[in-house]
Amino acid sequence: xxxxxxxxxxxxxxxxxxxxxxxxxxxxxxxxxxxxxxxxxxxxxxxxxxxxxxxxxxxxxxxxxxxxxxxxxxxxxxxxxxxxxxxxxxxxxxxxxxxxxxxxxxxxxxxxxxxxxxxxxxxxxxxxxxxxxxxxxxxxxxxxxxxxxxxxxxxxxxxxxxxxxxxxxxxxxxxxxxxxxxxxxxxxxxxxxxxxxxxxxxxxxxxxxxxxxxxxxxxxxxxxxxxxxxxxxxxxxxxxxxxxxxxxxxxxxxxxxxxxxxxxxxxxxxxx
Length: 272
Hints:
Blueprint: E1 5-8, E2 13-17, E3 20-23, H1 24-46, H2 51-77, H3 79-82, H4 99-118, H5 122-146, E4 160-163, H6 167-171, H7 185-206, H8 215-231, H9 249-270
Parallel strand pairs: 1-4
Antiparallel strand pairs: 2-3
Function: Catalyzes the transfer of the diacylglyceryl group from phosphatidylglycerol to the sulfhydryl group of the N-terminal cysteine of a prolipoprotein, the first step in the formation of mature lipoproteins.
Keywords: Cell membrane, Membrane, Transferase, Transmembrane, Transmembrane helix
Family: Belongs to the Lgt family.
């Protein structure tokens, strides 16, 4: 029996000025990038790393995150639609970003960044970059919460949320239609990503882990994608084709990242 639940009826739009619409999701993205830049700046200064590398890294990551996350959504979750509506692929303002696609986009960008800018191993960069990325992942899930999207199965836990299911119509004046009380999986993921950030942050600053190439990156991969794998069990599938799958798309995409995390930790610890 449900003891308590929350009617979540937050308007995803903060304000609008003519054609300009400012939404919580975009604000969360902006905060994530600003904090990420600040954290990386402190890290680069502590290691006397060329500051020009930071500015270039920021541009590579911003572009790769947005393009990769969008294409990840298009190809992993919505290709049936977008293959027939190619022009809609660029309509990123209508929503549709996939974190796995963003991760792949960053990896591709860092390959070229390492070749052209630092002349160092990709893993050297990733051991530093994943620290602010873990924090950014938390902010993105908070943005999903403000959009009332990517929530979980119906539940009787006392902290269940009732989300508005007709968000577009509601913001245009219609009466809200609420979901059944459901798992606020956006909050579950945000807390796991925050915990991962705290672990890799203190691992970098308080230990000699950055001298063991791949160790911090491996911890990040396991913290982010293992938590994503397990939370998917109480999360609603994003697309209909996932209904008959033993594991959904998010879980299948998480498994290689977790295995890679195990490999990098093992490899880093094994090397003297």
